[in-house]
Amino acid sequence: MNTFTNTFETVTDDYDKTLDSLRLDEDADCIPDTDIFEEIPTAELIKKVKETIIGQDKAVIRICSFMNMEIKKINYNRVHRNDYDFIPQHTKNMLITGPSGCGKTATVTRVCEEFGIPCVMVDASTKVATGYKGNEWYTMISDAIRYIASNKTNGNMEEAVQMYNKGCVIVLDEFDKAIIPDEGGRNYSRFSQGCLLKILEGATFTLDGLGLSNINADDQDSIEVDTSNTIFIAVGSFANYLKIMKVSAERELRQQMADAVNRLDGEIEKVRANKEAGVIAIKKQEASLEQEVNSLSVQLAKLQIEQKETLLKDMRMEESLKFKLAGLQGDMEHCRALISRCQAAWADCNDDYRVHRIGFVDSAAKTSEEVIHEGDFATLERQARMAADSKLEEIDQTNQKLGLLEKKIAEKKKKNQEGMDELQLKIEKINLKMKELESQAWGYDDTEANLTAKKAQTKVDYIGRIEKLKKVGPSAITLDGLTKYYDLTPELAGRMGAMVVLDQLKEKDMIRILKYSDRSDLSQTAKLLADFGVNLIIPEASYKLLAKMAIKENVGARGLASVLDQIMYRIFPLVEGEGEKEVILTPQCIRGKGNPKIKKLDEKSKEYPEWHMRDEIPF
Fold it and tell me: Which residues form the AAA+ ATPase domain (predicted)?
């Protein structure tokens, strides 16, 4: 029993120790709230940043969204780094460009302040590639740690490294000057970008490797600096980009225009050559058709001559038959007349029979015709009738021959006419074909005209694109353009997850900055003056004048600070002094042609008496 009790107590103690150990491990794995960054809704973040950054709404939205997403990635990695299925979220980098003084670094700094993530400015133009004399790219990590140590951790290097490893934003200012295109064909720029790329892809350093060995630390080799939670933001105006891009793009467009015009010229020449070859072929075809027409015309002429000869022969035979027929008809009429006379004589003979019988003969009956003289009228009539029948039969035969001959002549005429019509039709068809060929040879063909018009339109289009190219502003900067015209390597461009282009500030933007930005030089100056009893008032006309003067400085929002400093340094001796007062910056004062209006506050009534003007500065 005692043995069992001792064993049970031993097992229980081991279990309790194991459970306590697990609890300690679980507590060790828990990430305290202070080890992650505060997450802010993007809409709220944008609203806060817009209170400071004026006139860059689109850029602010993109930068805030980008930073919010990257902060969430950093927090995710720190919270879930001990999960068994943990896959790290890789942070991305950003490229910000825009004219000088448009608020590039100010926007990033303002966003970082809201998240509480360290933001370190590094002059990228001073960094060199590995192996060259100067500050190599990795020194920006040591610059960031030194900045954090001196500004965040009171010089404690270990805490500075921990804060950096938690997350840091390194702004590569003047980045455009670090990757300026090489001259003379050297590859230094690309080599330098390759060295930077290795750091952007993620790297681990030791304090000694970063040149921080002179800073006190217990074990410098065991302290590692990890860039996996570092967000690199490259910032630059790329002032020469537009000039380089315009020159190169215009050269490309003009070359493309020349190529397109040359191609169209070749097509036009080809059309002309084909047209000339077609005209030659058509002329040859016309000559062949003309020769065929001549041959058919000769055949037609021969046919016409043969027809005339044949018809002439037949017509002569027809005339001969007609002449014979006329003779036969004459003979027929003679026989009929003779028969009639015989019949008449026979009738007379019957009437005077007695007279004739006793020797009295009619004197009219005594003709030269033998038969009639003999008085044999019956025989004469019979002979006449036989002759008439013979003539009639011959007339019928002649008419039959004449009919056959006329039919033959008609058939020949028809046949010859059909032959001539056929030849004439062929000739007409060939003539029509020749006219079509002539029309085709000399007719209007719009192919060349269309190509010529297309050539002119191509020139107009390219010239229009060139003129449009000359008017492009900073908003035309793209990552693709930087890799094409500014020698940015595609690999480094690929590491830039986003690119934001800030706009050139206009006069209305300057006025809004003066009025509404909570961190403008004017608002800060007004707060400073209010601290020792000066209420600064600026009329609307003075706002506009300040904005115009700042625009002329050509340095963006920095021009506002420059102009304001010049005015404040001049009028400060006038507004300084005991007692509360109200100071109005009039347009004349801003132009330097007068002093501000100053109204002192009466301590008893707390009201302002008459305006007090001071004409001279008491130096």
Answer: 90-274
